[in-house]
Amino acid sequence: xxxxxxxxxxxxxxxxxxxxxxxxxxxxxxxxxxxxxxxxxxxxxxxxxxxxxxxxxxxxxxxxxxxxxxxxxxxxxxxxxxxxxxxxxxxxxxxxxxxxxxxxxxxxxxxxxxxxxxxxxxxxxxxxxxxxxxxxxxxxxxxxxxxxxxxxxxxxxxxxxxxxxxxxxxxxxxxxxxxxxxxxxxxxxxxxxxxxxxxxxxxxxxxxxxxxxxxxxxxxxxxxxxxxxxxxxxxxxxxxxxxxxxxxxxxxxxxxxxxxxxxxxxxxxxxxxxxxxxxxxxx
Length: 283
Fold this sequence. Notes:
The protein is an alpha+beta fold.
């Protein structure tokens, strides 16, 4: 019988690789360090159980009976936590129980009523969105063996022999136990009352938050894009051929220009001399 099936944890941190179902929440970068925060959804994996005890032959909830006040407070605290959006309830179960003493048929009905009483209490108080399934069980005398073995009950050997007997029915075992007044008083005071209860159990999960850091290569600056100027055209006049050639200025070196200029000058001198010769001949 558990009051709360483990503390509710809503976050965790670490550098481990995130789960395959992790959802990236945020990512920041500082220098060459990237910090990523993930949410890992969990719908189950945890349990919380609360017990409500009943007086003999009763199925109404009494807040001041045995540990009921503490169980009610724990249940209230748990239901407050379920309002957190990181917490997800996947199933709710209620089971009602009856102790083995008394009429078996009546005990079965009593166990069912105890389950229904806790069901209505949970629904009317907290209005859970998830469906609640209910069941019930009547304990047998053999279910007392483990508790009796650890107890200080008088005539323990005789009591265990009766409880473990396979030759007697449930009513016959009760009649045999009543023949040991001290043992029977111990049973009715310390053992049987703990078997008259109903429990509500929640299956739930809590989303986990994981922070992961990683180192990435430093960013390098890209070289500035420059536009190459369009080469200026150099105009060359070929007087000998009678054509004009346009070509990039940067492709004509100063030495080449000087050499071609000299060549043109030499050709002009040759033409001049040839003309003078012709004139002399004709005279």
